[in-house]
Amino acid sequence: MQSEIASEVPAVGREAIETVTRQPELIAVVAAALVFAGGVWWYLRPDSGDRFVDAITDHDRITVLMHPNPDPDAMASAMAVGALARAGGTAASIQYPGQIRHPENRAFETVLDCEFEHVEGIEDLAAETVVLVDHNEPRGFQGADDIVPHAVVDHHPGNGEGAVFTDIRTDRGSCASILTDYVRERGWSNRPDADGQSLTPVLATGLLYGIQSDTTSFTRGCTHAEFDAAAYLFPAADPDSLDRIANPQVDSETLEIKARAITRREIDGSFLVSHVGSVSNLDALPIAAEELIRLEGITAAVITGEHEGTLHISGRSRDDRVHMGKSVSTALNVIPDASAGGHARMGGGQAMLPASAPDCDGQGELRERFFAAMSGEL
């Protein structure tokens, strides 16, 4: 065997190999050199936070774009991008399509005095350089499909990417924990009175609540990184603001939709589907889903409601057998132009309804598809 290998190696190469094999100490020196070189590269490599800041501060102004109906994780991540940009001398505008209507989301925006701008079309964007947070493909407004993001930071699965920078960590429970990594890598202190750049109480509170919210108080999809980030953020966060955001007042329609979801529920084994009829506050659907997933014996729940001719779906799962994002997508794949997606633990979607059935109450076939998708039969 050795002779066969030797015959394939040029004479100069064979001499080098023979020299090394006759001198074991040389092998040790070479190995040590390689380990040292690798260590130097690892130590000197640019961190994601540094590369991200380099990417966004190449421009005078950026738009930080949140997904439609942004939640605390998206809002906190956008705030962090804005802070990093401004620290590097780049102006940043935080924008979003859709609405901020969920009580928790409205409280987050109000308590932290956030400056978010609404957009209805691509012409409303404050800058051509767009940074996406908490989603990786622009959506929810006219012209979104024509946007090529400059940078993307996300924890959701998807095919989107940034032209210059992409950081998608699907193993993370929140996008805010990734942005917290960036802030730490930039050397920001968690003590407001420290010398140099430090976290403000507003940013620390926002990031901490973003992590807490997207992991359902560190119980769902949470990783060690979320706990590590929370430990870093906590000394700079404001406890009173956290409490005010976490316990907002709830409007009467949300309570009514919860009641309808409970009374109209259909159960198959440990799976629940409930259609609540017409709604004006779409954020009440995920609130109802969060409520019904807590019912004894229920491990996965899908809530549907109709708004202006469109069926909206929100699902939650605490069942390792049920990937809710995939389940909703599978159930809707027979409906033209339907869209859906999400995490293993939460998912959502929407589909146009036929004009003859605007309230969708009689669409038992779709309900059965949700049950079949959750049970793995589709």
Automatic annotation (TrEMBL):
Name the UniProt record assigns to this protein: DHH family phosphoesterase
PANTHER family hit by this protein: BIFUNCTIONAL OLIGORIBONUCLEASE AND PAP PHOSPHATASE NRNA
Record organism: Natronomonas aquatica
GO molecular function ontology, one term from the record: nucleic acid binding
Alphabetic keyword roster: Membrane, Transmembrane, Transmembrane helix
UniProt xrefs under InterPro entries: DDH_dom, DHH_sf, DHHA1_dom, Oligoribo/pAp-PDE_c-di-AMP_PDE
Residue span, DHHA1 domain: 269-351
Domain called DDH: residue spans: 61-211
SUPFAM superfamilies attached to this UniProt entry: DHH phosphoesterases
Record bears the keyword Transmembrane: yes
Record field: transmembrane: 26-44
